[in-house]
Structure formats: C-alpha cells, structure tokens
Design goal:
heterotrimer, A alpha/beta (about 280), B alpha/beta (about 280), C mainly alpha (about 290), A: six-stranded mixed β-sheet, 11 helices, globular, B: about 280 residues, alpha/beta, six-stranded mixed β-sheet, four-stranded antiparallel β-sheet, 10 strands
C-alpha cells in the first residue's frame, strides 16, 4: 500500500465540489464545496446562517429537505459514494457509520416518552437487542456521556432536564451504534458558556476514547478553535478558506476570516487573556 | 469619574417569586453599582437571576428586601403612579435581547423609535422628528430605513433601532440584556461598535450577558452572578486574568477563545466537581 | 385596512358583491315593481317581461318578494354580528385589563354558552322570548358571541404579553396608550374576519329559520320563506328555487371572500404579500412595453 493510498484510506468523509440547489426557485445554495474528514481528526466548519454549512452536513446525512437537492459533486462516506445509495442503504448507514447532533436538543426528543426508552428504541431497532440488553447498554451510554445519575435520567422526561443534559442524551443516542463520523451542527450554540465547554470537552473525550472523526459546525470561530485540527470557513455557499487551525488563525487569507478574527480580538476574551500556556483540547 | 455618586445603587436586594409553597428566591443579597460614564457587566448563565435583576431595577419585579436607587431616588419605594411618572422622564431605559420581538411589527421603525418621546408627551411633532433622525444617526442607522417595518430590516439594524429607541429620552442609565446574542458576527460587531461610541458620554450602561467574550470586550467593571448571588466583582481585566471564585474561574476557563482554552480540560473538571456541577 | 383589501382581486369582488347586496337591502323595498304581498290571478307564471322572475303560487311577483325580503335577511345577519361584537368581543378585550375577577367570570359565562347545543338552543330561546325575528337573531348572536370573545381575548392577550408592550410600559405608557397604539391594530383583523364569517353564518341561519317558518309571521316575504314555498311547487316550476338560492349563496360567498381577503392583507405577511405583488408588477412592466397586451 502506497503512502498516498494509506492517507486516502484514512479519509472517512470526502466531499468534492458539492453543489446543492433549491428545486423550486433554481437558486444555488451550495456552490462547489470540497472538504474532507480524516479518521481521528476533528474538522471545524465555520459560517453564518446562509453560508450553506448546515445544508452540506444534511447532504452528508441524506436528509436534505424536500425542495432542496444535490445538483452536482460527490460525497463519499467511508469510501461509499452516496449517489449509489438507495433509501434502504441510507437507513443502514445512518447511526452506524455517520451520525449527528443538532442545535436545539429538546426538539429532537419526544416530550411524552421517557428518555431512556427513546435511546433503548434506537438500540432495539438498529442492533436487534432484547429489551433488557438494550436498557443495559443505554445506561452504559448515559454513564459514558457523564450524566450523573443514569438510572434516574433513564426514567425522566424531556421537560425535567436542562439543555446541557438533553444534549448529552442526544450524544448518547448518536454514538450508540458506534459510528465512525459524528457531526455536531451548532450543538452548543443554545447552551450556556460553562455547559458549552462541558459538551465540547465530552466530544473531545469521545474522540479519544472511541476514535470518532468529528465535524464541529459553528458560527463561532473560537468554538472551532477549541476543538478542531482543521478548519473550513464557508460563506454564501462557498469555501473561502481552509487549512489547519493554526494556519487559518495565524495567517488568514480571506477578508471574511480576517473579519471573524478581528471581532474576537476586539470584542472577545482574546483581548484580555495573558495565557501562560495554551491548552488545545 | 469614580468619585461621582452612583447612577444605580442596588443594595442588599432579595427577590422572590411565587406564593406559599411555590415561593422561590431568585436573588440573594445582591449589591451592584453603576457610575456615570461607566460600563458595568453582569455575567450570569440561565437560572442565575440576571434578567430578574434588570426587571427589579425597572420596577417590573418586586423586591422583597433591600433598596434600589437610581440617581438620588429610591425606586423600590415607588407606587404605581410614581413609577409611571418616573418612567416618562426616561431616566432608565432597556434594550431587549430579541429585537424582532421587542419591536411592534405593525409600526414603522421610526414610529417605534419615537414612541418613548410620544408617551412622555408635550413634545412638538417637529422636535420628535428631529430627535428620531438624530438618534438614528447616533447608531448609524440610515434615515431611509425609518419608514420601513422591522420585518424588512436585518437583525443588526433592528437591534440598533432598539438602541435608538432606548436613547431618545436621553436616559442616564441604559440596561442591555443580551443585546448581541441573537445576532450573527457582522451584525454583532455593528452593534458593539454603536455601544462603544456611547462610552464617551455620561450615560451609564449595565451590560447583561452570559457571553464572557462580549462582556469582557466592552465593560470597565463586571459582576458575576451565580444562582442569585454576586460571587465576584471588580475590574473586568482583573476578573478575567485573575479570577478568584471557582465559578468565575470555570467561566473564564470555559469561554472559547482563538488562543485555545485558558485552562485545560482537567482543571475544568476539577472546578465543576467543586461546584457540584458535573453531569448537571 | 379597507384600501389594502381593495388591492386584492378577491377583495374587490367581495366588496362589490356586498355593496350590491347592501343596495338591495337598503332600497329593495323602494324599487320593487309590485306589492310583494298582493296576490294576483297569474299564478306560477314563468319569467316574462312584466314579471322578471315570474310569480308564485298566489300570483305574487317573485322579484318584488325577494327585493322586499332583502332588508330582513341582511339586517338580521348584521344584527347577529352586532350582538356578538357587543356581548363577545368587548368583554374579550376587557377581560385582559379589568382584573382577575372579571376575567374568571367572563370565561365561565363563555364556557357555558359554548357548551349549549346551537340550533336547539336557538329554537328554544325563540320559543321563550317570542316568535319574532328579533328574538331569534338575538339568540343566535348570543350563541356566536363566545367565538368573538375568544378571538378578541387571545389577540389582546398576545399583544398584552408581548415585549414591545413591555418596552412601552418601561417608557411609562398607560393602559390606554397601549390599547390605542398597539392592541387596536392587532385585534382589528381577527375581529373583522369573525364579523365577516358571522354575517355569512347569520344569513344562513336566518334563511334556515325562515325556511322552517320560525320567527317570522307570514305573509311577510323572506328569502328562506320564498325558497320553502318554491320547493312546495317544484313540480310546476322546477327552476324556481334557483333565484333565492343563488342570492343566498352569493351573499354568503361574498362574506367568506371578504374574510379571506382581510386575513390575506393583515399584518406583516399581508404587507409582504402586497409589496411582493407590487414588485412583480414593476418587474413585468419594465420588461414588457406598454403597447403589448398581456
């Protein structure tokens, strides 16, 4: 196996020249986006609403809304081309190869079913486990996401938990089938600062423990800087900058990236901190 | 500047909500001061009581213990009609978090900005019109937008309208509650720039947020609110560089920065354990 | 609001039709060519030059009877709406501002009214209050009032609890200012829609009641009554019921159209709709020269 091939084998998600458009109006929403995620590394996608970052992620999960479709380019998930996939293939792929958590945790959970049951359902349906085995595994997952009292949370409903705890439950559900890729799309945006740090810490820990390839999507460059090895900056459906986090932060090429950095330096904590050492999580 | 009498003096304030068995304490013995020309930050996460404190200062929440004074008037002793008179003078104003909800969608933006002056009454129409244009210019809002409706403006423009509305009565104290949280990057900078320009006046600003980054960027002094108590307060740069209370240290250490974390993951875990926050 | 409604085609049609019906109601009795209750020997005649819509089984001119009955039908429907507004919408708005006792009381009264079965109660009330149209419409108005209460109350509540009203309070606004400046504009569209619906419903109800000969003393002509007698003689004049039916249909349709038009132009989405159409018009005018017929 050549070095090139070995490197290539490490790419778990490969998006090439992706184009997405609205079928009704014909407008191009994503205009040729390329990015790739390697096993064991974290990719950050930075962009505002309207930049196309969420649509790109949804395309990689096969969950684009009805009036929106992929009009060009390719997406390869673990070497499989998504255009070859049938609906059945997608169902098999989701959760087992690629998974995701999104912004508002409470809207992704059924408010009238106990939380444990909802995670148990995922395990029973996808892994064919018995009810008892699925419950056991769900409890282990809850412990893995550092919920303090897994047995208690198992019996609780959505409204009884805070945003941070709900997001942990969703992360537990997302990793239940041991996917290789986890997409976190603005997963911490709606959370308080300290809770956000907890969730980011959790994601970093999971990456180390189970070798997840992470995609962290955020409008906040600093969130991405915390966790990501590589960064892609998107604007108006295009990638305007990409590279390792250090490269992009230290020598930004595009004006938009420079604006984002300037905002943090002017109105952010960076102005104040005289950090003795830098801790990249 | 620091020797001037405080614009806002919150002294040992308790606030409770609910009645009988459902009665809970939201604020506990809170002390806070804002002096003329000062920008004071109030940091707190959800459940800290920061919005309740703002409402107490505005007379929208009852204070169960302690005193709040604005200038030399003790507002906690006000009756309903005295509040109305006080409010009409426009001494204290407030900017909400979500400009889409805090502006009446059926009023033009110019009409919304003018409203506080019109409520005050006794101001001739031409003077109102001039004031609207003057304060639109202060927040760098294009006067052509004054005839539009809020739904037609961007988030940043809307928030600047809300700020102009708060400034039109020339208040001495402006309270801003998460003014940039609902905005994206470019709009956030616009609004923060507009607020920075206010600092050269004698207006006092109370900037409430959970986002340490924007608070640190714009305030002179900051108080940290945790579960209804002020756990630490002081000059912002000192608070950020050398936090004392475990919660402040966790807050500073949790805030994402371009330079990477101020503290490592292990240290965050230790602080959380100390505060018994882990897994909550 | 009216000018906005007139900018929509559906609005123009609705207002036009309603103006026509209103004209019939106001001047019907004056322009009727014959005495509506005077019979003649020309019974069950078809439409002709002297009797545009023919005559009924007693030789009375159908056109005159329809014209004469317009005032009653339209007036009754308007009466229903007026009662519903007074007994429903007004307390609905006040329930937000007059304190918890009034709120509780009015809510319970409305709940009771809703729980009563509609038509049965209407008939029962007319029996109680007397067999007159006024009493019948009063009963109907009373039973429709809860809808107005709910609509007015929920519209007022959503405004009263909004942040922009709180902003006005922070600037020292009185309740009167808030109602005048903010509440009024927001409750007008939903209440107007309810009025339009109710007038339509009222027309159907009065036609139903008079069809069943309830609430009116014969031989006074009513649209429903004419329809009833026309059905009785279907064998002789099969086309006869068409006239009163078409009239009732058109009137009710116009009411619903108006309600839809008001809903379409109300509020922010309404403004967006109208300005969008203006933009489309500008764009197409710029593309095609004025001489081209579209």
């Amino acid at each position: 196996m050549t070095a090139h091939q070995a490197r290539h084998d490490d790419v778990v998600l490969d998006v090439r020249d992706l184009r997405i458009r609205h079928t009704g109006t014909g407008t191009d929403l994503v205009k040729g986006v390329s990015l790739s995620v390697r096993r064991g590394r974290v990719l950050g996608i930075v962009g505002e609403s309207g930049s196309g970052k969420t649509l790109t992620c949804r395309a990689a999960l096969g969950i684009l809304p009805r009036s929106i479709e992929v009009s060009g380019g390719t997406i390869d998930i673990l070497g499989r081309r998504t255009t070859d996939l049938t609906k059945r293939d997608w169902v098999d792929l989701r959760g087992t190869s690629i998974s995701a958590v999104f912004q508002d945790p409470s809207s992704y959970l059924n408010p009238s079913i106990r939380l444990g049951k909802q995670v148990q359902e995922v395990l029973r349906v996808k892994k064919g486990l018995s009810r008892r085995a699925a419950k056991q595994e769900a409890l282990e997952l809850f412990a893995a996401v550092h919920l303090r009292d897994p047995a208690l949370v198992y019996e609780q409903y959505v409204h009884e938990l805070s945003g941070g705890m709900l997001q942990r439950v969703l992360i537990a559900a997302a990793i239940a089938l041991k996917p290789e890729i986890l997409i976190a799309d603005e997963a911490t945006t709606a959370l308080d600062v300290t809770v956000q740090a907890e969730i980011l810490d959790l994601l970093a820990e999971l990456k180390e423990q189970i070798g997840l390839a992470l995609v962290v999507v955020s409008h906040d460059l600093a969130v991405v800087a915390q966790l990501c090895d590589d960064v892609v900056v998107m604007r108006d459906g295009e990638v305007v900058e990409h590279g390792t986090t250090n490269e992009v932060l230290r020598s930004p090429q595009h004006a938009y990236t420079q604006l984002l950095i300037a905002e943090h330096e002017q109105y952010g904590l960076d102005r104040f901190l005289h950090v003795k050492e830098l801790h990249h999580v | 500047m620091s020797s001037a009498a405080p614009l806002l003096d919150v002294d040992g304030v308790d606030v409770h909500v609910g009645r009988g068995r459902g009665r809970t304490q939201i604020l506990r013995s809170v002390d806070l001061q804002v002096r003329p020309g000062e920008v004071v930050g109030l940091i707190g996460e959800s459940g800290s009581g920061k919005s309740t404190l703002a409402r107490a200062v505005l007379g929208l929440a009852d204070v169960s213990r302690g005193r709040i004074s604005v200038g030399d008037e003790e507002v906690t002793a006000f009756s309903g009609s005295r509040w109305r008179g006080f409010r009409r003078r426009g001494v204290v104003q407030y900017v909400f978090q979500d400009p889409l909800r805090s502006l009446d969608g059926d009023l033009t933006v110019g009409a919304s900005i003018a409203e506080p002056l019109l409520i005050r009454g006794g101001v001739p129409r031409s003077a109102v019109h001039d004031a609207v244009e003057r304060f639109a210019a202060t927040v760098q809002l294009d006067t052509a937008l004054l005839d539009r409706f809020p739904g037609e403006l961007s988030g940043g423009q809307r928030q600047r309208v809300a700020i102009a509305r708060a400034l039109i009565t020339e208040p001495r104290l402006v309270i801003l509650d998460e003014p940039v949280s609902a905005l994206d990057s470019a709009n956030r900078v616009q609004v923060l720039d507009a607020l920075a320009r206010l600092r050269s006046t004698t207006v006092g600003l109370l900037y409430i947020s959970h986002d340490l980054g924007s608070v640190a960027g714009i305030t002179d002094r900051t108080a940290v609110l945790y579960r209804g108590c002020v756990v630490e307060s002081g000059e912002t740069s000192a608070l950020v560089n050398d936090p004392q209370h475990p919660y402040t240290r966790l807050l500073v250490g949790s805030a994402p920065t371009l330079a990477g974390g101020a503290i490592g993951r292990a240290e965050r875990d230790e602080l959380r354990a100390r505060l018994a926050l882990h897994g909550a | 609001m009216i000018t906005s409604v007139l900018r929509l085609t559906s609005g123009r049609i609705a207002v036009g039709l309603l103006a026509f019906i209103g004209f019939l109601a106001l001047f019907g009795q004056l322009i009727a060519p014959y005495d509506p209750i005077k019979g003649s020997d020309l019974q069950l005649a078809g439409p002709s030059g002297s009797h545009w819509l023919g005559t009924d089984y007693l030789g009375r001119d159908v056109l005159s009877r329809i014209l004469d009955g317009s005032a009653l039908s339209v007036g009754s429907a308007l009466l229903v709406a007026a009662i519903a507004l007074l007994v429903g919408a007004l307390p609905g708005i006040l329930s937000v501002y007059l304190g918890p006792v009034f709120e509780w009381l009015s809510l319970r009264v409305v709940d009771t009214l809703i729980a009563l079965p509609f038509l049965v109660f209407a008939v029962a009330l007319t029996t109680l209050l007397g067999n007159g149209v006024l009493q019948a419409m009063f009963a109907v108005g009373l039973l429709v009032a809860p809808v107005f209460y709910r609509v007015a109350r929920s519209a007022t509540l959503s405004v009263a609890r909004s942040q922009y009203v709180e902003a006005a309070i922070i600037s020292g606004a009185s309740t009167g200012w808030i109602v005048r400046k903010h509440v009024w504009a927001k409750i007008l569209p939903p209440v107007a829609i309810s009025v339009a619906h109710t007038v339509g419903t009222g027309l159907v109800v009065i036609a139903s009641l008079t069809f069943l000969n309830i609430g009116v003393k014969p031989p006074a002509p009513t649209w429903g009554g004419i329809l009833a007698s026309d059905l009785g003689y279907l064998g002789f004049k099969p086309y006869a019921p068409v006239f009163p039916i078409v009239l009732i249909l058109v009137a009710v349709l116009a009411c619903q159209l108006l309600a839809d038009a008001i809903r379409d132009v109300a509020g922010e989405s309404g403004r967006a709709l109208l300005s969008g159409r203006d933009a489309d018009k500008d764009r197409s005018e710029r593309r095609t020269p004025a001489s081209v017929e579209s």
